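We close this part of the discussion by returning to an individual protein. In the encoding step, the backbone of a single protein was reduced to a row of integers, each denoting a local shape. The sequence in question and its structure tokens are set out directly beneath this paragraph.
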Amino acid sequence: MADISAQVYEALYAKPQFQDLVRKRRGVVLRLLFISMTCFFLVPILSSFTPDLFRLKVTASTNFGLWYLIAQYLIGGAVAWRYAVQLRHLDKMVQHLTQQESQQSSLPSTAI
């Protein structure tokens, strides 16, 4: 039984649709990682090069630095939501591919 599942996975890995799926997943993860890290590392970069920017008053009791740091939570939530949505679609594609492959491998082979 282990040989059958290994054969199914080997056949699945060889499919061009699976390779395309891996590229899509990598693109989603890297794009969202880039957005997250950009927002995260902008705080020390901007605060060291333009410290007056974070002191700008937005309202009477708040400044730009406080608004930016609060916005990071919103951006982080949006990135997490987008990650979940994108990977849900990719998971459906994986499930479809594995079902196709397992159905093909369960068909009786007609070897001569």
